[in-house]
Automatic annotation (TrEMBL):
Coiled coil feature spans: none
Gene designation: Arhgef4
Name of the molecule in the record: ARHG4 factor
Localization annotation: Cytoplasm
Compositional bias segments (type: Basic and acidic residues): 156-167
Organism: Ciccaba nigrolineata
Residue stretches making up the DH domain: 185-369
Domain called PH: residue spans: 400-507
Length: 593
């Protein structure tokens, strides 16, 4: 295993754990030979996949029936090492890359960054673990094994009675070549960062040269639009990561790794890492497109032939396409561990500290954009439930429901107060009327362009513009037309929530402009189409289900026969049972009415 970390410092128990992407994806370095139809540039000979020589199925069977075996070893070495440690009484810790949301009481739920004690790693895809007093199964690919397994859970160093550091755990303890324990721990983390980065570059190269290059030669099978959907901007990521790993290696001190100063590299590339946002947002679409294509045997055989010719491990394409999603989630964990073992006097300390905050912000931005894109389906479903809708779709200008609630509205003097439901999105406020008999049915009435409005707080008492007495009121005033609307809440706290929501709406619009967030026309149309289909059938939509299951399609996990087959909802919230209209809206809204 090329990413295994091995050291000659005997007093420390160091273990060759892989920290790179899905379990087994670091096994890329073993010697393999293959007689394959390649042309001068190292790519697949196009004629080798045509009917003149044989079908994709024939090529696939030729490889399978040959004497060579390129199957994924199943993480056997790693699993064996982990289970030997566990059986010897050692405690093995892993850190969660992202949330594992589950509704199954036999599975272990956790949030990104949680530390899990691994208690059994016998099964390849599913491990048994514990957090505090909770135990259960969890997907092995959702976690990263800690580099320094012998370290206690508490922050280093430990304190003993009298306020002095315990000498057995402090940085004054030395091993070989004058290195302290803390320096050795830092060496371990630095080596992990460098080795996993090199492995990651290999994965990206394999995807770009092993799959994309071959797909482009088969215009009869793939359109450019399909390739863009499947692979997203992974070629841009590959170019970015090649530059990044070169910068890391320049800062890597081979003789004394603990002296390496890598924090500045992360700071330098923090802006470029935002390209992962586009990839992560597109990833569910990639999984759905692959799910559709692999229902046809021709594509299954073609993808397998590409994998074999590139000498890649035995994991399906959607497994490889997961690696960038995992990688951007892993950086904050690696930097947090590096900071833990970096002395404040180290020249790299301030840069690592700043890099950790920067990469947390990058991950937060990516997660926020992903959440926003997932919300557009909910907004489209909401609009499809509104009766008598007029004008353009909400998604034409908006992508976020900021707040919703009931208000009394007066649009001009002597006008009657009207009780209405209001939905504040970025850029617009939508007004609806409840059905008199069925209160869960809403009718569209109007909308207000928030870009033209200013919000005015109104004191309780008589309003001079409308010549009426108001309570818990505020106004929306149009700067261009002098149009004025007055709104009254039932309680003072409701009014304050609305005023806060209007501030949040303006802040969201400004942030979107600064970060360049936008939704493509294709995404808007698809969301409305999905909502329309669901509205007509009256059944819950299942269009995103393949994304929950895509990892399990690589090698569907087999749990012990004593347990029922597990069903896990991954990388997103679990699919909820159909609920009424107001519960749907409350999940969209960050406030409670």
């Amino acid at each position: 295993i090329t990413s295994a970390i091995a050291f000659d410092i005997l007093p420390l128990k160091l273990h060759p754990f892989s920290q790179s992407t899905p379990t087994g994806l670091d096994c890329v370095g073993w010697k393999r030979r293959i007689s394959s139809p390649v042309i001068a540039d190292g790519s697949l000979d196009k004629t080798a996949l045509t009917d003149d020589v044989g079908s994709e199925e024939d090529l696939y069977e030729d490889f399978r029936s040959s004497s060579h075996r390129y199957g994924h070893p199943g993480g056997g070495g790693e699993q064996l090492a982990i289970n030997e440690l566990i059986s010897d009484g050692s405690v093995v810790y892993a850190e969660a890359l992202w949330d594992h949301v589950t509704m199954d009481d036999q599975e272990l739920g956790f949030k990104a960054g949680d530390v899990i004690e691994v208690m059994d790693a016998t099964n390849k895809e599913w491990w048994w673990g514990r957090i505090l007093d909770s135990e259960g199964w969890f997907p092995a690919s959702f976690v990263r094994l800690r580099v320094n397994q012998d370290e206690p859970m508490e922050d280093y160093p430990l304190k003993v009675e009298g306020g002095k550091e315990d000498e057995s755990s402090s940085g004054t303890r030395r091993f070989g070549m004058g290195q302290t324990t803390k320096d050795q721990m830092r060496t371990n983390v630095i080596n992990e960062i460098i080795s996993t980065e090199r492995d990651y570059i290999k994965h990206l190269k394999d995807i770009c040269e092993g799959y994309i290059k071959q797909c482009r030669k088969r215009a009869d099978m793939f359109t450019e639009e399909q390739l863009k959907t499947i692979f997203g901007n992974i070629e841009d990521i590959y170019r970015c990561q090649k530059k990044f790993v070169k910068a890391l290696e320049k800062k890597f001190n081979k003789d004394h790794p603990h002296l390496s100063e890598v924090g500045s590299c992360f700071l330098e590339y923090q802006t470029e890492f935002q390209i992962y946002s586009e990839y992560c947002n597109n990833h569910p679409n990639a999984c759905m497109e692959l799910s559709r294509l692999t229902k046809v045997n021709k594509y299954v055989y073609f993808f397998e032939a590409c994998r074999l010719l590139q000498k890649m491990i035995d994991i399906s394409l959607d497994g490889f396409l997961l690696t960038p999603v995992q990688k951007i989630c892993k950086y904050p964990l690696q930097l947090a561990e590096l900071l833990k073992y970096t002395n404040p006097q180290h020249r790299d300390f301030k840069d690592v500290e700043a890099a950790l905050n920067a990469m947390k912000n990058v991950a937060r931005l990516i997660n926020e954009r992903k959440r926003r894109l997932e919300n557009i389906d909910k907004i489209a479903q909401w609009q499809s439930s509104i009766e008598d809708w007029e004008g353009e779709d909400v998604l034409v200008r908006s992508s976020e429901l900021i707040y919703s609630g009931e208000l009394a509205k007066i649009s001009h003097p002597q006008a009657k107060s009207q009780q209405r439901m209001f939905f504040l999105f970025d850029h617009q406020l939508v007004c609806c009327k409840k059905d008199l008999l069925r209160r869960d049915i809403l009718y569209y009435k109007s909308r207000i362009n928030m870009d033209d409005m200013e919000i005015l707080d109104v004191e309780d008492g008589k309003d001079k513009d409308f010549n009426i007495s108001v309570k818990n009121a505020f106004k929306l005033h149009c700067r261009d037309t002098e149009e004025v609307h007055i709104f009254c809440a039932k309680k003072p706290e409701q009014k304050q929530r609305w005023l806060k929501a209007f501030e949040n709406e303006r802040r969201q619009v400004q942030l979107d402009q600064e970060t360049g967030f936008s939704i493509t026309e294709v995404q808007k149309k698809q969301a409305m189409l999905n909502a329309s289909k669901q509205h007509h059938t009256g059944k819950p939509k299942a269009v995103t289900r393949p994304y929950y299951d895509f990892l399990m399609r690589q090698k569907h996990p087999t749990l012990p026969t004593t347990l029922p087959q597990q069903q896990v909802f991954m990388l997103a919230e679990p699919k909820r049972k159909p609920s009424n209209f107001w519960q749907n809206i409350s999940r969209l809204t960050p406030f409670r009415k």
